[in-house]
């Protein structure tokens, strides 16, 4: 999972008051079982029945922070020189590159890795590679899986390809689909499945129509006899080498 | 005094260790040995028990538990039992019956003990073979009277969930609006559905007949529906998700808004009651006694047919607390009774019902809450299906643990055994009674009583029951031999991987003579557990009795701080919360574990400043300061409140300037900490970012103790803290009052 797949988007403030932020699938699964960095579970004991109010932290007269009333010109906050230790020092968060919210950005502002021209050439996956790999798996399945199912999958793969070619799929989706087929190629069924799940959670509106076909493809391919897959591998590499030669 | 403090500190450790290992927190950890003394303690001997507490370090064993052979005992072999290794006999610690070990235990000895006899396995889990594994079932019941945007978002969430379901699960779809449609899920051909009128109540048998589930070719002997395992009659309406996911995805994608036009000034006609009755009947007829979840999604209240909560005229608003107290809620009793009957049927079949209610106005949770409360189902409440609150809460239903296994469990039953000096008064939590008679049942019923067995149709690792006991030893009777009382909890359930499992927890506590050891008994008191245990009792009574009586009863309990907050919490104070909101909060309060329940009664408040690391502060108006950021967790809301000066600095943009990077860090710190909570909490809380003078600041202000109200601000002579504008009583005043009450009642 790339750093770009661990992100947080703001909630939908238009539809739900105080809608919480939305975490990507990667962030949510990473959080399961991970120990809390700063567990907020302490309480202050209540004041005694007899006495005056127990001192509330911060009310001591030794407070050095200026508290200017609103009408006067505002004194600035303490400079970095006097910085106290940063609160959360124990175990860093899982991956760098996470964008945090300090204030609420306007709705639907997606905080993601932005595309630049140089990025494009470096990391833009090739639709042909991806589709070829998917079709390899589908062809392998046709030996044993019902025709109707394979046709249904094929229909969805075609839809996927069309959407890609007509620019309807965002870069993260394209990139992650490339990752998915790499896992398929290496017979890492669980990993491929996990990528499909992450895409369904994070980008359901882009992928819902065709992703179920990919899901089925993974499920059927993993059930195939391994000999069949080997044979298919050989065929596929012969195909690609002949294509390469002809270029 | 110092000894007492040392004793307290040790008890804290003892309490924590026991909770970590066994998922149990008792109100008292030393038990008064006579009935009379026990009743004097106000808080009964009781506990919070989390049957499926996450125990990543506990590997299950793959054999059947050994049971006591006495017919009315059947306790499970545990570390408290006396064992004669030479004669291969064990003595039940509950009924003292001597039992021979089964042949497979021939090799045990002092140095070769089976796991279940070792003290560290006071909690142990068994995997048992009980017939062929049953698949889990997920039946979606979907309201189509939604706005386009909401319907689209809901459809996408449902499509997404098909990728999250356990692969071999069975899935089904019922949609409803004015009519109710049960969709046939086949792999080929045109999708068919069976349509029912939304107004006509049908019996379970009629529903099954109309759905063709009892047709002659599919009948077994004596005309009963054929066994579910019979492939010939595998229900067309509940199919394995790995077979129908493509078709179901398309079907969901094509769902349309309910076509019945909604005239001006009217609500859509929603036949929720019939839809649910068909769902329950369908499952009853095809898969009784196997783990199943009905997941109901609704965007508004039921407006037609049995179970309607409000009529279709918009000018008649849905019932408020005012209407209810004035006995002006026309449909309330009838609707509640209707859903209660459905809930009980579902529970007796071992099926749970979730409610996902997303609408700006109330949807009828007050009438429908029993559907989830009795079956262990979830209730999620949001403003719209197109919100992160709903989407992520729904996603988290399918969350997995560190082993990659689903956290949800099904078909649970809990059985409790006790030593003879103790009896079971009842349980409060998401359960129903199994009406199991036995020698351990107390005549004093508390909560769901009259039984030592309960059914919990759906469980999560945080599902927690409160169990109430009665000490029955007579006054002046000698302390029982061995000096300890014991309780055993046996939970049988279906794991999400379809294995049947049995988890056994056996705990013991010392008896103490209250006459001579009252100080020791007092030092064993667990204030936190007791607060939640009494609060659950309060909520249970509030749901079944008049409100003000409960508050008066609560005032007589002497757990001061928590009672103060409980009294003002949405669980008991109904102003500012609709009947649906109260139902929602109460539902979670009686299901959640201790830590989460405590947050609900007494929210946590942390203060962030330049003066050091974040620190917990009193939930008091004195904690609200201009140069502090406060993070408050009420469980249902996370509030970040920026003090006046902080807000001004933020507005002036200092965080953007490099020389004020520390200010930027300060602003980010509470956000990061809130995020850690947001990432895992179920259900997803609301997230409020506000500041001094902000309209949303009221969420903080209403929770803090108003020690400085406009009545006494100037009498203190200092200008610290922000005054809270309220006439609500302050903690000091309340505690003074309680102290007077306590003294006078003991006199």
UniProtKB/TrEMBL annotation, chain A:
<comment type="similarity">
    <text>Belongs to the SRA1 family.</text>
</comment>
<comment type="function">
    <text>Functional RNA which acts as a transcriptional coactivator that selectively enhances steroid receptor-mediated transactivation ligand-independently through a mechanism involving the modulating N-terminal domain (AF-1) of steroid receptors. Also mediates transcriptional coactivation of steroid receptors ligand-dependently through the steroid-binding domain (AF-2). Enhances cellular proliferation and differentiation and promotes apoptosis in vivo. May play a role in tumorigenesis.</text>
</comment>
<feature type="region of interest" description="Disordered">
    <location>
        <begin position="1"/>
        <end position="69"/>
    </location>
</feature>
<keyword id="KW-0539">Nucleus</keyword>
<keyword id="KW-0805">Transcription regulation</keyword>
<feature type="domain" description="SRA1/Sec31">
    <location>
        <begin position="74"/>
        <end position="232"/>
    </location>
</feature>
<keyword id="KW-0010">Activator</keyword>
<dbReference type="GO" id="GO:0005737">
    <property type="term" value="C:cytoplasm"/>
</dbReference>
<keyword id="KW-0963">Cytoplasm</keyword>
<keyword id="KW-0597">Phosphoprotein</keyword>
<dbReference type="GO" id="GO:0003713">
    <property type="term" value="F:transcription coactivator activity"/>
</dbReference>
<comment type="subunit">
    <text>SRA1 RNA exists in a ribonucleoprotein complex containing NCOA1. The RNA also forms a complex with PUS1 and RARG in the nucleus. Interacts with AR.</text>
</comment>
<dbReference type="GO" id="GO:0006357">
    <property type="term" value="P:regulation of transcription by RNA polymerase II"/>
</dbReference>
<keyword id="KW-0804">Transcription</keyword>
<dbReference type="GO" id="GO:0005634">
    <property type="term" value="C:nucleus"/>
</dbReference>
<dbReference type="GO" id="GO:1990904">
    <property type="term" value="C:ribonucleoprotein complex"/>
</dbReference>
<keyword id="KW-0687">Ribonucleoprotein</keyword>
<feature type="compositionally biased region" description="Low complexity">
    <location>
        <begin position="50"/>
        <end position="66"/>
    </location>
</feature>
<dbReference type="InterPro" id="IPR009917">
    <property type="entry name" value="SRA1/Sec31"/>
</dbReference>
<dbReference type="InterPro" id="IPR040243">
    <property type="entry name" value="Steroid_recept_RNA_1"/>
</dbReference>
<keyword id="KW-0675">Receptor</keyword>
<protein>
    <recommendedName>
        <fullName>Steroid receptor RNA activator 1</fullName>
    </recommendedName>
</protein>
From TrEMBL, chain B:
<dbReference type="Pfam" id="PF04810">
    <property type="entry name" value="zf-Sec23_Sec24"/>
</dbReference>
<dbReference type="InterPro" id="IPR006896">
    <property type="entry name" value="Sec23/24_trunk_dom"/>
</dbReference>
<dbReference type="InterPro" id="IPR037364">
    <property type="entry name" value="Sec23"/>
</dbReference>
<dbReference type="InterPro" id="IPR006895">
    <property type="entry name" value="Znf_Sec23_Sec24"/>
</dbReference>
<dbReference type="InterPro" id="IPR012990">
    <property type="entry name" value="Beta-sandwich_Sec23_24"/>
</dbReference>
<dbReference type="Pfam" id="PF04811">
    <property type="entry name" value="Sec23_trunk"/>
</dbReference>
<keyword id="KW-0862">Zinc</keyword>
<comment type="similarity">
    <text>Belongs to the SEC23/SEC24 family. SEC23 subfamily.</text>
</comment>
<dbReference type="GO" id="GO:0090110">
    <property type="term" value="P:COPII-coated vesicle cargo loading"/>
</dbReference>
<keyword id="KW-0653">Protein transport</keyword>
<feature type="domain" description="Sec23/Sec24 beta-sandwich">
    <location>
        <begin position="409"/>
        <end position="512"/>
    </location>
</feature>
<feature type="domain" description="Zinc finger Sec23/Sec24-type">
    <location>
        <begin position="65"/>
        <end position="105"/>
    </location>
</feature>
<keyword id="KW-0472">Membrane</keyword>
<dbReference type="GO" id="GO:0006886">
    <property type="term" value="P:intracellular protein transport"/>
</dbReference>
<dbReference type="InterPro" id="IPR036180">
    <property type="entry name" value="Gelsolin-like_dom_sf"/>
</dbReference>
<dbReference type="InterPro" id="IPR007123">
    <property type="entry name" value="Gelsolin-like_dom"/>
</dbReference>
<dbReference type="InterPro" id="IPR036465">
    <property type="entry name" value="vWFA_dom_sf"/>
</dbReference>
<dbReference type="GO" id="GO:0005096">
    <property type="term" value="F:GTPase activator activity"/>
</dbReference>
<keyword id="KW-0931">ER-Golgi transport</keyword>
<dbReference type="InterPro" id="IPR029006">
    <property type="entry name" value="ADF-H/Gelsolin-like_dom_sf"/>
</dbReference>
<protein>
    <recommendedName>
        <fullName>Protein transport protein SEC23</fullName>
    </recommendedName>
</protein>
<dbReference type="Pfam" id="PF00626">
    <property type="entry name" value="Gelsolin"/>
</dbReference>
């Amino acid at each position: 999972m790339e750093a770009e797949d661990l992100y947080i988007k703001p909630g939908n403030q238009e539809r739900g008051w105080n809608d919480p932020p939305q975490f990507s699938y990667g962030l949510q699964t990473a959080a399961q079982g991970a120990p809390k960095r700063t567990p907020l579970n302490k309480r202050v004991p209540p004041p005694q029945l007899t006495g005056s109010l127990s001192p509330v932290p911060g009310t001591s007269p030794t407070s050095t922070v200026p508290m200017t009333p609103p009408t006067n010109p505002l004194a600035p906050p303490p400079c970095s020189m006097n910085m106290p230790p940063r609160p959360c020092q124990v175990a860093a968060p899982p991956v760098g590159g996470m964008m945090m919210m300090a204030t609420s950005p306007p709705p639907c502002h997606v905080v993601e890795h932005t595309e630049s021209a140089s990025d494009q050439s470096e990391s833009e996956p090739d639709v042909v590679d991806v589709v070829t790999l998917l079709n390899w798996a589908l062809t392998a399945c046709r030996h044993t899986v019902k025709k109707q199912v394979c046709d249904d999958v094929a229909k969805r793969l075609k839809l996927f390809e069309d959407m890609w070619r007509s620019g309807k799929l965002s870069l993260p989706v394209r990139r992650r689909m490339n990752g998915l087929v790499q896992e398929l190629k290496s017979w890492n069924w669980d990993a491929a499945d996990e990528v499909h799940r992450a895409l369904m959670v994070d980008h359901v509106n882009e992928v819902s129509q065709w992703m179920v076909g990919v899901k089925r493809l993974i499920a059927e391919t993993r059930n195939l006899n391994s000999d069949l897959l080997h044979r298919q591998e050989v065929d596929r590499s012969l195909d690609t080498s002949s294509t390469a030669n002809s270029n | 005094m110092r000894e007492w403090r040392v004793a307290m500190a040790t008890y804290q450790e003892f309490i924590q260790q026991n909770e970590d290992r066994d998922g149990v927190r008792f109100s008292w950890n030393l038990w008064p040995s006579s009935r009379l003394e026990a009743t004097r303690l106000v808080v009964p001997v009781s506990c919070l028990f989390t049957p499926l507490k996450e125990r990543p370090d506990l590997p299950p064993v793959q054999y059947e538990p050994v049971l006591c052979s006495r017919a009315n005992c059947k306790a499970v072999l545990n570390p408290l039992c006396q064992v004669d290794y030479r004669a291969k006999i064990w003595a039940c610690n509950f009924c003292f019956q001597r039992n021979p070990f089964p042949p497979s235990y021939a090799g045990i000895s002092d140095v070769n003990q089976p796991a279940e006899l070792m003290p560290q396995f006071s909690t142990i889990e068994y995997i048992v073979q009980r017939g062929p594994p049953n698949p889990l079932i997920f039946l979606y019941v979907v309201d189509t009277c939604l706005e386009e945007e909401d319907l689209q978002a809901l459809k996408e969430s449902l499509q997404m969930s098909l990728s999250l379901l356990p692969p071999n699960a069975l899935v089904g779809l019922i949609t409803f609006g004015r009519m109710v449609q049960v969709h046939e899920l086949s792999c080929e051909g045109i999708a068919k559905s069976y349509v029912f009128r939304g107004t006509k109540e049908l019996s379970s048998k009629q529903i099954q007949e109309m759905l063709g589930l009892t047709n002659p070719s599919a009948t077994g002997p004596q005309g009963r529906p054929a066994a579910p395992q019979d492939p010939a009659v595998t229900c067309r309406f509940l199919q394995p998700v790995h077979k129908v996911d493509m078709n179901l995805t398309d079907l969901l994608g094509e769902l349309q808004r309910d076509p019945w036009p909604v005239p001006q000034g009217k609500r859509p006609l929603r036949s929720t009651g019939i839809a649910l009755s068909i769902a329950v009947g369908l499952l009853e007829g095809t898969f009784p006694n196997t783990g199943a979840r009905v997941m109901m999604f609704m965007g508004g209240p039921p407006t037609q047919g049995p179970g309607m909560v409000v009529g279709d005229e918009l000018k008649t608003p849905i019932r408020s607390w005012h209407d209810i107290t004035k006995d002006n809620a026309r449909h309330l009793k009838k609707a509640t009774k209707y859903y209660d009957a459905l809930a009980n049927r579902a529970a007796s079949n071992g099926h749970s019902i979730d409610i996902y209610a997303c609408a700006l106005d109330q949807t009828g949770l007050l009438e429908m809450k029993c559907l989830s409360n009795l079956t262990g189902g979830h209730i999620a409440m949001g403003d719209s299906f197109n919100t992160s609150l709903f989407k992520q809460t729904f996603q988290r239903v399918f969350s997995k643990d560190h082993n990659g296994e689903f956290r949800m469990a099904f078909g649970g039953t809990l059985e409790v055994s006790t030593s003879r000096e103790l009896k079971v008064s009842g349980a409060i939590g998401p359960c129903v009674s199994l009406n199991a008679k036995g020698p351990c049942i107390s005549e004093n019923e508390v909560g769901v009583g009259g039984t030592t067995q309960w059914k919990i149709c759906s469980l999560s690792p945080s599902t927690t029951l409160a169990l109430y006991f009665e000490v029955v030893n007579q006054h002046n009777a000698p302390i029982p031999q061995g000096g300890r009382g014991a309780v055993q909890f046996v939970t049988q359930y279906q794991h999400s991987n379809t294995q049947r499992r049995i988890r056994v927890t056996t705990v013991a506590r010392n008896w103490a003579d209250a006459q001579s050891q009252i100080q020791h008994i007092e030092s064993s008191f667990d204030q936190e557990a007791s607060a939640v245990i009494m609060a659950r009792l309060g909520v249970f009574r509030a749901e079944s009795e008049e409100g003000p009586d409960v508050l008066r009863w609560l005032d007589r309990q002497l757990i001061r701080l928590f009672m103060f907050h409980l009294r003002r919490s949405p669980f008991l104070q109904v102003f500012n919360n609709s009947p649906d909101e109260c139902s929602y909060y109460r539902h979670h309060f009686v299901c959640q574990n201790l830590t989460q329940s405590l947050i609900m009664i007494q929210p946590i408040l942390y203060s962030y400043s330049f003066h050091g690391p974040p620190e917990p502060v009193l939930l008091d108006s004195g904690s609200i300061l201009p140069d502090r950021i406060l993070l408050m967790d009420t469980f249902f809301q996370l509030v970040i409140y920026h003090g006046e000066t902080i807000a001004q600095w933020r507005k002036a943009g200092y965080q953007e300037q490099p020389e004020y990077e520390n200010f930027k860090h300060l602003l980010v710190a509470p956000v990061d900490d809130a995020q850690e909570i947001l990432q895992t909490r179920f259900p997803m809380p609301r997230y409020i970012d506000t500041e001094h003078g902000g309209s949303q600041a009221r969420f903080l202000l209403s929770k803090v103790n108003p020690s400085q109200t406009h009545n006494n601000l100037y009498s203190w002579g200092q200008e610290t803290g922000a005054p809270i504008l309220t006439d609500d009583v302050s903690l000091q005043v309340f505690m003074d009052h309680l102290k007077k009450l306590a003294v006078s009642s003991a006199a």
